[in-house]
Amino acid sequence: MILVMAGDMAPRSWTLAPGSGRALDTTRAGERNGGGARMVLEEELATLMASAQGGDAVAYRSLLKACLPVVSAIARAQGVRGEAVDDVVQDTLMTVHRARASYDPSRPFLPWLRAITQRRTIDRLRRAGRRPREVNDPLAYEAEVDPGPAPGQGLEARDRAAALARAVAALPDGQRQAVEHLGMRELSLDETAALTGRSKGALKVNLHRALKALRASLTQEKE
Amino acid sequence: MPGDGSRASCAMTRHESLVEELAGRLDPVRPLPSPVARAALWLGAALLLGLGLAALAGTGGFMLRMRVPDLALAALGAVLTAAVSAFAAFATSIPGRSAGWALLPLPPLALWIGASGFGCLREWIAPGTDIPGGHTVTGCFSFLVCVSVPLSALIVVMLRRACPLRPNLTAALGGLAVAAAAAALLMPVHPHDATATDLLIHAVAVALIIAANGLAGGRLLSRDARLS
Hints:
The complex is a heterodimer. Chain A has two domains: 2-130, RNA polymerase sigma factor, region 2, helix turn helix motif (Rna Polymerase Sigma Factor, Chain: A, Orthogonal Bundle), CATH 1.10.1740; 154-222, Orthogonal Bundle (Arc Repressor Mutant, subunit A), CATH 1.10.10. Helix content of chain A is 68%, strand content 4%. Chain A has helices at 26-33, 35-53, 57-77, 83-98, 109-130, 138-143, 153-169, 173-184, 189-196, 200-222; strands at residues 2-6, 13-17. A two-stranded antiparallel ribbon of chain A has the order 1-2. In chain A, a hairpin with a 6-residue loop joins strand 1 (2-6) and strand 2. Chain B is an all-alpha fold. Chain B has one domain. Helix content of chain B is 75%, strand content 0%. In chain B, helix 2 (35-57) packs antiparallel against helix 6 and helix 7 (167-189) packs antiparallel against helix 8. Chains A and B meet through helix 3, helix 4 and helix 5 of A and helix 1 of B. Chain B: The chain crosses the membrane at residues 39-64, 71-94, 136-157, 169-187, 199-221.
């Protein structure tokens, strides 16, 4: 993360240049991009903070605004995401306000700010860790089998039963009796023979022909 | 995404209003003195207490005991432990200072404990030394606790002026400083050589003071994000 000074107007403001995932590693950034910018930034922030300790509200406002992107970047680098970043920023600003007397103007400002931000980030992450979280698993939800009947299942079953009844009714008497007694009512050959007065052999032939005819008629109907 | 954009602008508004609020309530503050100066201030208060006690108890016996090498070393260890622990506590109460300062009291602590332990060994080798009875032991214990209370209160007040980001560590260091200072202040009024019982009482009192500071002080020193 590279700190860039924007403009020469006072009060100055700083923005964080995008492109690096590591937040505010000013030491390394300074070494790569020339330590001058970092040194100037440190001096500016230290001067602003010293003025703020003396009660200069304008300097304090500029300082806090300059801190906003810095604090956000540190929080993100430590794994805070989304709205929690803004909460860390708020917590850090309030701690900076309360602890402003502990800043020594003869020392660099950014390590002081970084220490406060990291501690507030850890506090936030701990609080978030203790809170129960909703587990959202879209894949498992899609793969979930619904134990109840599908919509329209009853209508389909009724249509199939009506079609079968029509096909059976259209069969010749011998075949129809064989299907009704042997197939639908699940009677034995002996019982069916006694009921209908037909021989068992005739019943078998009728059942075979009936099933063949039904298969043909229902297949045709489907097509 | 439009949702992200509106969230970001909402957050910026929140931050800007907080910045305005904080800038509006800004009062001038005096930067805290360095940890060395603050530790010296606290030690000065402890020294005043010690001078008062010495005036009450007299220093004749104390000067005599200080001729015994291990007692003198134990006293030196206690004083050094108090000074270095106080400095470490004040250093760790400043944001951005290394937590490694917490290791600094270990050498004087070793000297203090080692020299006190040597007193036990001497008692074991040369029996017949005056061994304190139960009444004296209770007196020593009460003395340590009574001296510790005002010193603890003072160091907590002083530490709270900074911003201890590791409140438990800072409180434990403060507790060690208080315990060592109390043990050092006990020496002028302590009528006995060190013995095993004596060392045990010291250890229990020191552990109690550190634990009390660590537990209560951890809460006393922790600075949450609420505005006061």
